Amino acid sequence: MPADFRSQVQGLRPYLLRYASLQLRDTAAAEDAVQEALLAALIEGSYTKSEILELYLNKVYFGDGFYGVEAASRGFFGK
């Protein structure tokens, strides 16, 4: 193998590895999106809109280390 060709291949290697990493990330992101869609459909079929909102509000991060409406209201307002 000519030295010039070898140096070109070695020079491309970081780009090849980066490209492969991006491809894997895209694949993982697509798989995550499919799982999220399936889970959303399952949740939607199992709960009412009010129940889903309640579940969400009891799980979401409100800042300052508070997760959920109850914890956030106690932390921010002392109630």
Blueprint of the fold:
Elements: H1 3-46, H2 49-57, E1 61-63, E2 66-67, H3 69-77
Antiparallel strand pairs: 1-2
Explain what the structure shows:
This protein is mainly α and 79 residues long. Helices cover 78% and strands 6% of the residues. It has three helices and two strands. The chain has a two-stranded antiparallel sheet. The longest helix has 44 residues, at 3-46. It is elongated.
Properties at a glance:
two-stranded antiparallel sheet, mainly alpha, elongated, 79 residues
In short:
The protein is mainly alpha-helical and 79 residues long. It is built from three helices and two strands; from the N terminus they run ααββα.
Shape: elongated
Secondary-structure class: mainly alpha
**Alpha carbon gyration radius:** 24 Å
Q: In what range is the share of β-strand residues? A: 5-15%
Classify the helix fraction into a percent range: over 70%
- Order of secondary-structure elements: HHEEH
Instruction: Point out poorly predicted stretches.
Output: none
Please give the count of helices. Answer: 3
Instruction: Profile the largest sheet.
Output: 2 strands, antiparallel
Query: Distance between the terminal alpha carbons, to the nearest Å?
Result: 75 Å
In order across it, which strands form the biggest sheet? 1-2
